[in-house]
Amino acid sequence: MPELLSAWGTVEARYPPGLREKGLRELILSEQRLGPFARALLQLWYTGVWPPMSAAWSLENGNHRDAEEGSLLAIGYPQGLVWRAAVGIHPQAVRPTGFGSWALAPEEG
Amino acid sequence: MEEIFDVVIVGAGITGAIIAAEAADADLSVLVLEAGTDQARTFAGYREQLRTFYGAPFKTPEAPYAYNPNAPEPDIPGLPTPGADYFVEKGIPFGSTYARAAGGTTLHWLGTCLRMLPEDFDTRSRFERGLDWPLGYDDLEPDYRRAELEIGVSADVADQKHLGVEFPPGYDYPMERIPPSYLDEWLGTSLNGMTVELGGESLELLVRNTPVGRNSTPRAGYKPVGAVDHGEGFAPPTVGQALARDLGERCQGNSACVPICPVQAKYNAMKTLTRAADRGGVTIVTQAVASRVLTSGRKVTGIEYLRYESPGSPQAEKHLARGRAYVLACHAVENVKLMLVSGLQAKNGLVGAYLQDHPVLLRWGLAPKQVGAYRGPLSTAGIEDMRGGRFRARHAPFRVELGNDGWLWPTGAPDSNVAEAVAEGQFGSALRATMRDQLGRQLRMGFLIEQPPDVQNRIGLASRRDALGLPRPALTYNLDAYVLDGMTAATGVAKKLFARAGIEDHTDPVKGLGFKQQWGGQTFVWAGAGHFAGGHCMGASAGDSIVDSEQRSWDHDNLFVAGPGSMPTMGTANPTLTVAALAFRTARNLIAEPERAR
């Protein structure tokens, strides 16, 4: 994680605001070690689930799955960004939309 | 001296709860033995299950319910969960599950309350398929109404009269129908009135609201039942606990009917069980696994059970329950297991035979515009017109369940969409835009195919044992040509429906999470429906069945074997409403005549 943050620092320093996405691709997402980690982090933010890393990546970098994963997911699942990305949707059993709300036309995103 | 109850019931699911409540109303003393825990008895315990669900990496029907090695229950085969190999299987995987806990499988049912069609009760005579029931639609109709009242079904009779399903004049369901989803209405504008050909027969289609055990707007005179909150030993609730009962009187749109409705707006059998407990005269013992039915000649003399203190420890004490009449009501598979363990083998060799499910063909796609997926109850409508007709002589009929839940079931969406987009290199605003565009357009259809009883599909005992030393169920299961030809026909219909509504087909055996089945050059993606039938089928004579039309054992005068296992066929109706109607029929006959010499 500190490595990822430091790489982001480099992106911020070297690439002007309009080109940050390019910087992310060049210095992080295409990087052998940081790329898979960053993509896993994206999935964690979006869904609350840390996805399984490839065998090759785990062999090189270790794979520290947390024993508390279930209870972390219990907090993370309702907060997943995927449920904020689209308009009108919600995680199962969280933030219900109210009786009959499902009959209304969905808001266009 | 130990107490002798009027009725001893094994299983605190919908069947056991209804029979217990009815028997208590008739002033009989009742003992209910439940293998699992009663975590859903208090609202706090129920909410704990909700947290377990949030934290479960695989959000299956079992996800909210902690695995109990002393009363293990199955999970979807192939998952890395402890229940996934509970069944010892031959043939193809059996993809359906049930719950072992007070409340039973209604804890995680969808709530669909379709009646069976009149023609479903005698498919052998009409179509030379399946088995005839020893009773017909008209015999069961009053009990269907009683079951609809008990469950609190929301539907409008005006929507439900079709394919011969009749209601008495003036009858309507306890609550108004659940509002159709935007998706239902949008599909209806494209699909209503179109025709399809099945076996040379032309059928006109209509998107139809589905009757459900989910609280809506009550009709005059009906009071919806909210959440359950009871004290230790099912004691009446305290004032504080009673507050929880104000929750769940109407569906809030939590979109989690399966596996857990957070407010209990969806019916579960705890509601009936606590009604029985409130009535008095009912003793409910949980964490009590029935291990043997004791008999002497044509009489059941007792039920041995193992009472354990904690699901975490196999330490258990053996007890004996004694009654005048006995009811096995612990779901098809566990009923059969208990009979076989106890040596209750019918001479006809049919204990365990005719295991059935509704194999569900899954099809999914993207609507041409935002249709509001991931909102509302998981399903609010279906297409029922292909459930009946002369074509049933040629291939299996089916109903179409329309999902409001995006691609959750077929692909594990939206997580699978995130994983795919991230793997493609998306992040930031592009990733957000993809999700915004796709999720609300996702649509899936589940085609529930009738599976007629096949004597080769059966439940037996495995040599592997559970923590308490009881055998695990051994299942032999396959899909025959009649079912697979039904899937072929359903696939053709799905393609027509998608084309007509402008839905982009994304059905893909590689991305689909379900089972794969090859047939006629196609690969079907399918899943279990969670629907069981068979194992102790009812019939007209002792020669060809295990119980009669009252679910009374042919072999033992004071024994009833009740639940979905008694159903010789299911047609294409989700079985719970019929199971509940049969429970009322059984209760009435048991009260009138607890024992019948044959």
Report on the architecture of this protein:
The complex is a heterodimer of chains A (109) and B (598). By secondary structure, chain A is mostly helical. Chain A has two domains: 1-31; 39-94, no CATH class. Helix content of chain A is 54%, strand content 0%. Chain A is built from six helices and no strands. Chain A has helices at 2-14, 20-29, 34-47, 55-61, 69-79, 82-85. In chain A, helix 3 crosses helix 5. Chain A starts with a helix and ends in a 24-residue tail after the last helix. The model of chain A has no long low-confidence stretch (mean pLDDT 90). By secondary structure, chain B is α+β, with helices and mostly antiparallel strands. Helix content of chain B is 24%, strand content 20%. In chain B, the strands form four sheets. In chain B, strands 6, 11, 12, 13, 14, 17, 18 and 19 form an eight-stranded antiparallel β-sheet that branches. In chain B, strand 18 and strand 19 form a beta hairpin. In chain B, helix 1 (14-25) packs parallel to helix 8, helix 1 runs parallel beside helix 14 and helix 4 (137-151) packs across helix 14. The longest helix of chain B is centred in the C-terminal third of the chain and has 21 residues, at 481-501. The model of chain B has no long low-confidence stretch (mean pLDDT 96). Chains A and B meet through helix 2, helix 3, helix 5 and helix 6 of A and helix 2, helix 11 and helix 12 of B.
